[in-house]
Amino acid sequence: QSKQAGRNTWRFFDPAMQAVAVRRALFESELRQAEQRDELALHYQIQVDRSARVTGVEALLRWHHPEYGTVPPYDFIPIAEQSYLIVSIGDWVLQTACAQLAEWQTNPHLAGLSMAVNISPLQFQQPEFVYRLEKIIVATGANPERLKLELTENLFMEEPDAVRETMRRIRILGVKFALDDFGTGYSSLGYLNRLPLDQLKIDQSFVRPLFEDGANEVICASIIDLGRNLGLEVIAEGVETQAHRDWLERQGCHAYQGYLFGRPVPLEALEENLRGLVCTAGNWVPAVTPAN
Ligand code: C2E
Ligand code: MG
Ligand code: MG
Ligand code: MG
Fold first, then answer.
1. Buried b (16+ CB within 10 A) or exposed e, 252-278
2. Ligand 3 centroid to residue 237 C-alpha, Å
3. Over the stretch 31-74, which tens digit does the pLDDT of each residue have?
4. Per the database record, which ranges form the EAL domain (predicted)?
5. Ligand 2 centre from 180 Cα, in Å?
6. Which of 10, 17, 99, 229 has its CA at a distance of 20 to 30 angstroms from the CA of residue 235?
7. Taking the model in full, what pTM does it have?
8. How far is the C-alpha of 113 from the C-alpha of 47, rounded, in Å?
9. What is the residue with the minimal CA distance to atom 10 of ligand 1?
10. What's the CA-to-centroid distance between 118 and ligand 1, angstroms?
11. Is the CB of residue 255 less than 8 Å from the CB of residue 50?
12. In this prediction, does ipTM exceed 0.95?
């Protein structure tokens, strides 16, 4: 075909560009098989309240590739979205997270944990999403009240009314909603109080460099005020230092997630870490209260 098109077209067969396309196609086909090959895993990062009690975890997807090692989500989630693979992968994530939640419910020490799961806009907009979710909840026996779906602002850009209706149907099941990466999207604020939201998550891009730039303090304080005034719980992600945590607490932030409290870890490590904590009233506190 290239010969027929004439020699002028040869410049389109840039070997470097072709290599990129081939690598991309290979990557996609490997991702397609990742689930069957048992290469997908969930890691869990704890979330804590103002008293440093663990209230739950966020499930974060990992792809353990036999050659490339662990591929970070930022490298494969976009490809999974472009290829629609995110629909089946997202299904696997929900299934795995709900099965884990159900297992914790049978363990008196872990029964209080909540589970936050990231949902891609494409996955959420599947016509059968509510049906799939309900089926997974019923099949696993997970308590829907302990399940929280993390949505991002860009979900509300195209058909906000349809999305709100879907959220309403899911809310009836008892499932909670968090608005993830808040402040990084392009949507209007007008939709905020019309959605059945429970939690606002301040994006880590404002939290991690909190004191490096005065604007970040203004943005974080404003998001906390906004959330509180709308009756939402506000959680900060990317909390890496005690100074950040203390500042956020003074601003009225309700909950925290970040390396200061724990990195995302495999299941065994999470359960090991929680074993060292005492469970009181459904929350985990350090066995020995640290002296001030
Ligand atoms: P996210 O939902 O905003 O998750 C928080 C990200 O911040 C995680 O990155 C977490 O490891 C990281 N993080 C948390 N605390 C800190 C901190 O103190 N310092 C630093 N440097 N980073 C922190 P991760 O696991 O690489 O995930 C990246 C993104 O990939 C997630 O951002 C989410 O958008 C997406 N993602 C992860 N798992 C899933 C999934 O199951 N489904 C979908 N659709 N997206 C997912
Ligand atoms: Mg998230
Ligand atoms: Mg986030
Ligand atoms: Mg984020």
1. ebbbbbbebbbebbeeeebeebbeebe
2. 6
3. 999 999 999 999 999 999 998 899 999 999 999 999 989 999 99
4. 24-278
5. 6
6. 99
7. 0.91
8. 10
9. 264
10. 9
11. yes
12. yes
